[in-house]
Amino acid sequence: MKLFTYWNQLSLRYGRHAVLSVPWFWLLLFFAVPFFILLRISVTDMGEGLDPFAPLIESRNGQVMLHLKLANYVSLFKDTDTGWLQTLYTESYLLSLRYALWTTLLCLLLGYPFAYFLARSQPAVRTLLLLMVMLPFWTSFLLRVYAWKGLLTEQGIINHLLMALGLVQEPVQLLYNDISMLIGMTYVYLPFMVLPLYANLVKLDGRLLEASQDLGATPWETFWLVTVPLSRSGVVAGSMLVFIPCLGEFVIPSLLGGAENLMIGRVVWDEMFSSNNWPRASALAIMMIVGVVMPLAWYNQRVSRKAELESHA
User: Fold this and answer.
1) Could you identify which of 55, 185, 259, 279 might form a hypothetical disulfide with 103, taking C-beta atoms 3.0 to 4.6 angstroms apart as the criterion?
2) pTM for the structure as a whole
3) How many domains is the chain built from?
């Protein structure tokens, strides 16, 4: 009996560590190790090769030499002709931020009403609507973007429909501009906004809405004062799932965007494969990661502090 009890305690102790070690090992192998390799390449001098395992500190003839080339990072923010913050990289990053913010806002405006209706619908209808939301994932991402390219072209269905209705007299330029970019990115990432919002709204306690109505609140006041605040976590989760991949998007700008729609993902690709400048491309990727992780870390710290204060209150 004592042996059985000891075996159970041992299993609980090491079993918990074994289960937790699986995701930690996954993050270490597929995130931490590639990140540090990328960081190592970003401070490499192209003239010395691109060995990511070469030592950063080396001693030669009694002198310590540090093999770090920070010029790869400086060149992202400073140009010899235009000066600081006037480079192609800063402009493309700001453009990517603009597209990501607009896409997130459009996905929220379109996705919140649909997620709300989905959460309030009957179970049988809800299953069908969920299937419609997830149905695009069954088709290749590339094919879906190409489909929009065919729809938005001057000889596409949309222009033919507009001319048939008499709204325009000649084909409208819908491709290779801001309109095509926002349409394509909103279409692709809309399910990433709808699903977290639905998961949050479907768990909303209906008694709170009834209590609000009993206290004299109108349906609109109930929505803004009860439903929206309680679904804040779903809004944040959906916005993150849309904003982060939009920031580094490459396929949609390449197929639907014009020459002026040069986002940071395309710049990284050009630096790595066209210019063959891996250190600068790695420095760009590192700055993108830092630009996303730091605000997320600040937000998580703020939420944790707020929850801690509420627990002590």
Assistant:
1) 185
2) 0.84
3) 2
